[in-house]
Amino acid sequence: MPKKLYFMLPDVAHCKQLIIELKNIGLAEHDIHVVARDDIPLEGLHQASVLQKTELAHGLELGAGVGSVAGMLGGLLVVVFPPAGVILGGGAVVLATTLAGASFCTIVSALVARDIPNQELVAFQSHITSGQILLILDIPTKRVNEVAQVIKNTHSDAKIEVSNPAL
Description:
With about 170 residues, the protein is α+β, with helices and mostly antiparallel strands. The protein is built from 6 helices and 4 strands; from the N terminus they run E-H-E-H-H-H-H-E-H-E. It has 2 domains: about 1-50 and about 120-165, Alpha-Beta Plaits, CATH 3.30.70.120; about 55-115, no CATH class. Helix 3 (about 55-80) runs antiparallel to helix 4 (about 90-115).
């Protein structure tokens, strides 16, 4: 399972220098994400997407799960207690309501979750607001120590936070 490493850098120049070193040890650019204040130019850096900066991924998962269960239960209720005078085919109705529930709830939860900041980034918000750069690395578990050592060699005062992203 991949890990996420989070740490702050003082400015864009330090960030670019460290990214070069990380690429030299084999990290791919798509595994390196940068978050900064809106007025800080990040040309040439891979900025974090909405998936990294918000709870959108979690919202999509939750919406699909809850919607599937709700749709399936609704379909089962319609099949077990059909409306007066209506004959329904059980499996098709349950499948259709399950898919409809999953689709509807996924869309609704995505619309809500895209505006909720990623809870793992909240701790860094004051540093980002003050002008520092947050670097997020998605790396395999077996490379955490190696990458942490490269970071410590370049920025000995760096405080590295590790998390297990939900997949």
